[in-house]
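_Full entry_
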Amino acid sequence: MGTKLIIDTDPGVDDAFAIALAAQSDDVELLGVTTVFGNVPIETTTRNARRILALCKRGDVPVAEGAARPLVHPHLRRAKYVHGLDGLSGRSAALPEAERPVEPGGAVRLLSRLLESSTEPVTIVPIGPLTNIATLLAARPDLHHRIARLVIMGGALTHGNSSAAAEFNVWSDPEAAHRVLTGGEVPCVLVPMDLTYRCAVDREWLDTLAASGSLGAALAALTPDYLAHYRKALGWEGMVLHDAVAVAEAIRPGILRTESLPVSVETSFGPARGATVVDRRRPEVRAETEVPDGVTSVDVAVDADLDALRAFLLERLTLR
């Protein structure tokens, strides 16, 4: 049927677009959605994920609630200043109510069951804090071989958004990010905010989506608070669909250009907490120095045909 996919998410406006992208794609078998704290508390991310799937008429997709807090230290701040108090610009109540109940047993149980029952390896797309995924990898090493790859939206090569150094998803649980990105058990693609910012869409793109039909109009209606933030962050009328860029790579491998680079995560309590340290020195130079313990190579997305990517997103989100 196509790529077998699970999304781990903390909706969030860009998460809504990402879920819809997978739900609308005929070449994707969306096996399930798991939720995590992040942009808003876990009860809200779970409700939002279920309502987005209901909007896409995908009541067949199971949803399980995951971690309500980081692995070790408290979560300091939500992203309501970006996504609104309910995660969807105050408009979540306008979405249809989900009829399918939340799956019992939690996110790791659903992830395990879906991996166990799949006849082929599954791609997991974590687009929120990595707490659920770190827990899965630690608890079920017998399932590592059933994960085709993790396509992770997170991290930053130059500067962050939650702090000067750290991107929100990694900053929200640096210990979990360290466990996932440096463990080496499962192939990882890291889609950092440096690239997702370059993939930002403008008002014309959004207006085209809104005019495409009921789904496009409903998605566009979730964006006012998000647009207001990115007006300041970008300096022009547009917005960044971070998580949808990662889902695009999961659906169409190679739509993003990647480089295999050593990555580590800063877990100290200094000003760089949550930073992803990506070694972009030439391999010949890296070979002359000793690689620190706990640093493994990850496929880092560094470039894309930006117009082709935006066209791909728009095409998929306006399919029906």
